[in-house]
Amino acid sequence: MIQILKEASEHSFCWVDVNQPTEQELKDLAIKYNLPETAIKDCLDPGHLPKFEQLDNEHFIIIRNYDNKCDIGADSFQKLTRKIAVFWGKDFLLTIHRHDSIVIDGVAKKYANANVCKSPFDIICKIIKDSLQSFENPLAALDAEIDSYETRIFLKSKIPDLLKNLYLIKRKIYVKKRLFTLTKAVIEQLGNSHKRNTIYEDLKDTYVRVETITEEIYDSIHSLLNIYISLSSQKTNEVMRVLTVFSAFFLPLTFIVGIYGMNFQFMPELTHHYGYPGVLIFMLLLTIIIYQWFSRKGWI
Fold first, then answer.
1. Three-state SS across the chain?
2. Among residues 178, 180, 184, 177, which one has the least CA distance to residue 218?
3. Residue 180 to residue 211: CA distance in whole angstroms
4. Could you tell me the CA-to-CA distances from 159 to 41, 72, 94, 156, 242 in Å, in that order?
5. Over 90: is that where the pLDDT of 287 sits?
6. What domains are there in the chain, each with its CATH number?
7. Which of these, 15, 62, 235, 246, could form a disulfide with 93 (CB 3.0-4.6 Å)?
8. Could you tell me which of 95, 84, 88, 86 has the C-alpha nearest to residue 33?
């Protein structure tokens, strides 16, 4: 569906938005606006990462925003985000996306008929800003989830699939972190291609804020994973210590039982009337001695 959001007759440029384009529609637009075929192919690729490209007389960027309808287990660029392709020249702006876009709808509603954005560059800055802001709520949700896991880990509460959930959070944060790194390059090249203004500076401030939040969450999940691994190792060491203590108690007792279990005719106290209880008392005293020795060492 092709929709004209800004008329060239009323503004200094026209803004054409294309939703769910067919291959023929894209070819027609390429002919109309003199766009290269390679850039059109990038529009058809749903998994393309953010990029900035200088064409002959136009510019081309790809930006990705968070998909609010993504699955809870999504952990890749394609599953977590949606792509928006943007072409612009001196007197036109062309936005292309394969699904309904909250970002495009929001920017169009606020700025399509306003005098705030006086050029395609201003509209693009607003689109990138809103795309970055679409990640703020998901990042806040991940941060809250990490805090919840951290509390439960220190309280040693049982959490089903804990390691799997922590890895999923780490994967989501990694994807966002890499995406923001690529977006940063787009923003810098965008600023180099046009005279910077307050709208662009506002975009940079938004990027810095989102990037800072992402870095903090990335560090938090790394720390939490290290804490979890350390606590798991500590728990394993405690189990091994208990087993070692038990083995230290039973090893000499097993040795004594093994000696008396051998089939020899002449053995100490074998025919003595009190031989059996005597050996039991000796084993009990040996156990008490071992216990006292462990207590002095602080091992139990």
1. CEEEEECCCCCCCEEEEEECCCHHHHHHHHHHHCCCHHHHHHHHCCCCCCEEEECCCCEEEEEEEECCCCCCCCCCHHHHEEEEEEEECCCEEEEEECCCCHHHHHHHHHHCCCCCCCCHHHHHHHHHHHHHHCCHHHHHHHHHHHHHHHHHHHCCCCCCCHHHHHHHHHHHHHHHHHHHHHHHHHHHHHHHCCCCCHHHHHHHHHHHHHHHHHHHHHHHHHHHHHHHHHHHHHHHHHHHHHHHHHHHHHHHHHHHHHHHCCCCCCCCCCCCCCHHHHHHHHHHHHHHHHHHHHHHHCCC
2. 177
3. 7
4. 46, 18, 49, 9, 24
5. no
6. 2-233 (3.30.460.20), 242-297 (1.20.58.340)
7. 15
8. 88
Q: Phi and psi dihedrals of 64, rounded to 5?
A: -125, 140
Answer whether 78's CB lies under 8 Å from 65's CB. Answer: no
CA angle in degrees (0–180, nearest 5) for 50-87-205? 50
What's the pTM value of the predicted model, to 2 decimals? 0.78
CA 138 centroid distance within chain: 10
Residues 6 or more apart in contact with residue 65 via CB below 8 angstroms:
81, 82, 84, 101, 102, 103, 130, 131, 134, 135
pLDDT in tens, 3-28: 887 776 666 788 888 888 888 888 88
Q: What is the pLDDT of residue 8?
A: 64
With contact defined as beta carbons under 8 Å apart, do 74 and 171 qualify? no
Place of tokens 């805090």: 147
Residue 63 near residue 107, CB atoms below 8 Å: no
Contacts of 173 (CB under 8 A, 6+ apart): 142, 214, 217, 218, 221
